[in-house]
Amino acid sequence: MIKGHFASSTEGFARVTVGRGGALEKGHHHHLTLFVRVRGVFSRVGSFLAAACTGMPAWQVLVLILGLSFVNAIADTAGDAAAPGAVAGSTFRVLILGNSLSFVNDGTYQVVANLVSQQFPDTALEAVQIAQTGEFLSDHLNKAGTPGTYEYAALSAESVEKWDYVILQEESEQVALGGGDALGTRDAIAGLAKLADARGARAVGVVLTWAWQDGTNDKLPSFEDMQDKVNAGYMDLIQDLQKDMSVPLFLAPVGLAWQAVHSILVQEAIEETLGSSERDAAGLGNPAASAQPFSQALLTAICNHSSEAPAAAPDVGRRDALAAPAAAPMQPSAALEQKPSADGPEVTVPATFSGIPVRQDLLLPAQSASGSDDKRDTGTDDNVDICKEGTYPAGWDTFKQMYSDDYHPSEQGTYLEGLIIASAMTGCRMKGNPYGRNLEAKWVSFLQLLSDAVVFQTTSPAFPQQLWVPEGASCKLR
Q: What percentage of the chain's residues is helix, strand, coil (to nearest 5)?
């Protein structure tokens, strides 16, 4: 008797098991399991063929299976002729590990997924985000070694998941404070990068985060003071790690965009002799802020502004910060939130934390180029100049409106974060507003121009641009 079983999905590998009892050797049962790659309509055809196999000789079953494989191979070959830079016939997968700086406003992963999918419409794309409030990268690393967590299901040796890119987002203070905090972040990035490499990651990105609106304490008394330390810490940290890692590392310079807006507005306020009360209300209370090395370098790179004294290249040396002993990493809490991965290790921790899902997924199928044209370059305003406050979407309040509170990004800030991650990951200037973020056209244009300026105009020697867009990089996924 012949038994056929065909397990399939819309895209991936299907398993066909054929069993025959007593035909080849008396008293023995023989099972042949074949893995056939299927996609789209072929999964339905394969299911039909397997159902029809009942009662057929084994050799006929094999002929049908091999025929299906041959037809599907032809389809794959045809798919390889897709647009340059596209990854035809496969799903491009991105994993983001972070905290509330990433999951607010429905999640940075949604912005990244939609932007990259719009740029490469012929490629199916899946973005996964694992994040909860107050989580450090050291927490993610600890949980990646703890069975029952989402991180373990996504990155452990037992995981069945593969990733093209892994993006890491840390708390801003960790790197800015230096010492054991910065060293703990360094070790966590190194450990997570090694796990990502083992799961097939082409590269690992680290988000250079933004400072708090008014700094955080006496050591970091203002936005500019804190942002300068965040910049220097991350740049030195990644340059240091690149020497030892087999998987490529890059920065997504999101914090530089926050600083660019702040620096430009402070400079404009000085030139227009804006009153101190107005500056304070707009979060621009420190007139000397634009004289900081990173601020001057940004003003020169983005707006071709030159001060009386040439802007010195920022000093990214932070060896003192990396020399202190590491603080003991935080242990995962019993109340953490997770959810199982299909066919992977079981996840046993709660699925939500404070009502917010810990693991969030978005799968965007491949679309024809014509289908994506309707939403390219839409919802924009050409009358925007990121170097002139008068064209800013919220005038003097633009900087403050990039925050929802003293720490977290607003909708505008989350969109900017996603823009810069997507551009640093692909080397592409993003196009249009790909989905409903409820942003005004002026904001969309402003944030896109700002992202492009920070990613593509911050060149050496003032900035180590090779950390986010290597020289000669082209717009592509892989």
A: 40, 15, 40
One-letter-per-residue 3-state SS of 158-193:
CCCCCCCEEEECCCHHHHHCCHHHHHHHHHHHHHHH
383 Cβ neighbours under 8 A, 6+ residues apart:
391, 442
pTM of the model: 0.75
List CB contacts of 280: < 8 A, sequence separation 6 or more: none
Output the average pLDDT for the chain: 76
Q: What's the CA gap between 8 and 35, in Å, rounded?
A: 10
> Which H or E run contains 206?
strand 203-207
**Other CB atoms closer than 10 Å to residue 436's CB: what's the count?**
8
Q: Where are the domains of the chain?
A: 2-79, 92-467
Strands ordered across the beta sheet of 165-168 = 249-252, 203-207, 165-168, 91-98, 124-131, 359-364
Q: Where are the alpha helices (DSSP H) in 246-394?
A: 254-271, 276-281, 293-303, 369-372
Instruction: Find tokens 């339905």 and name the residue.
Output: 44
Measured from the Cβ of residue 79, the count of other Cβ atoms closer than 10 Å reads 16
pLDDT at 347 over 60: yes
Residue 101, Cα to own-chain centre: how many angstroms?
Answer: 13
Reported as a single tens digit per residue, the pLDDT across 383-407 is: 889 999 999 999 999 999 999 999 9
Distance spanning both ends of the chain, measured CA to CA? 48
| 92-467: CATH architecture | 3-Layer(aba) Sandwich (3.40)
What span, in angstroms and rounded, lies between the C-alpha atoms of 185 and 234?
10
The predicted-structure confidence for 14-24, as pLDDT tens digits, reads as follows 333 333 333 33
The whole-angstrom distance between residue 164's C-alpha and the CA centroid of its chain comes to 11
Q: How confident is the model at residue 265 (pLDDT cuts 50, 70, 90)?
A: very high
Residue 418 CB neighbour total at 10 angstroms: 32
Query: CA distances (Å), 418 to each of 169, 207, 252, 440, 448, in order?
Result: 12, 10, 10, 17, 10
Helices (H), 11-167: 41-52, 58-79, 100-103, 108-119, 137-144, 150-155
Look at residue 254 and give its three-state secondary structure: helix
Gap between the Cα atoms of 248 and 337, Å rounded: 30
